[in-house]
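re: ur question from earlier - yeah i can do the single chain one, its not a big deal. heres the input i used so u can compare w yours
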Amino acid sequence: MKRVGIAQILAGHDECTVPLILALNRLGIYADVYINNELREKRGDLFQSLHVEHHQIYIEQSTKLKTLNPPPPCNRVFWLGVMGNKVKKLIYLNKEYSLPIMFWTTFAKKPSPMFEYCQEIGMHLYAFVHDARNGKLSRVLAGLSSVTSVVFSDGMVDAFSLHAEKIKPLKFYLPPLSDLSKRQGLQGREVNNSNDLRIVVPGRVAYARRDYGLLIDFAKSLLSQETLSVEPTFVIAGGISGDEGKRFMDDLASQNLLKYFECPCISLTSDGAPFMSYEQLFSCLLGSDLAVSNSLAVKGDYTKVSGAINLCINFKLPVLYLNDYPLYPEFKDMASIIIDSCDQSQVSAFAKEMPQLVVQKRKETHLLKDSMEQWNQQIIQEILSRHK
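and the output i got, formated as tokens:
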């Protein structure tokens, strides 16, 4: 069985690895994942949390690399406790059993020494770009050989139009992290029109990244509506810590909203963990009915996507956008609810229709995720056909 490499060398964006594994496995291809061990230490083991079948290996300076091959018939996850020459040798030894490609799931600023090494040994790299607004990054990519850019939405593809002759990016969707509905009974909540309704706010509390004034104003407006048919509970699915966490809790208290917010991961001391573990995060998402976006990072130019919102789509939660735009206009607002939270008539209508609307949009999330998975299968097949 063929194998393909996936590299997440930086300490972030491990969520990019799993949809690749899922798409590859469905085509009969195993994955060798090279991933920074700091991610496991910070948030836990994503692959175990999503029940990805794999064999995990911890790479330290003392690891005997020649004992790792030939590979067993399964995915392998290499948790990298060291970098440099040790990892270069690991990739080189594994190359004998793999197709000559590497999915590089975070390309930032310029090629790293490890990236350049993979080029030197004859690998074609598929570089995942997380911000298509970065003109300098586009120019860097345009000058690289044996590299194909990968982006995450139609808007990001359009953002590369200035270098259309040299950069022809592929599109790959991140939400299909797993087929959770078929595994371990992780079905999520069944929405009932007459019961309580839980609205999750994904992401750790960070005022530079999210507009909490907007969120609090919306919560106040929604709770004040006479048309409100179900009293919602807002769930903060992220770490609340340090000065920013204290500021957020003070803001809630000043507006008498504490009883309407659940904060399962809170530590206001300066050394409090800023991230939820994956187990905690997935529990919050599975226990919710609707997500709300108060992102400052993602705007109407569609040149970035939100990892937090992608997680919600993966867990089949419709997303309510406040004065914002859905991440994927190519799907024509499927599984999205868009309201102007400053418009009282819109908030009133939403309050009245909320339970029925959530049920309808929840059904759409299944179609959205299936559409993304089908697209991903098509793209991976196209890539594999180039490197037989």
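The chain has two domains: 3-181+371-386, 184-370. not sure if urs matches, ping me
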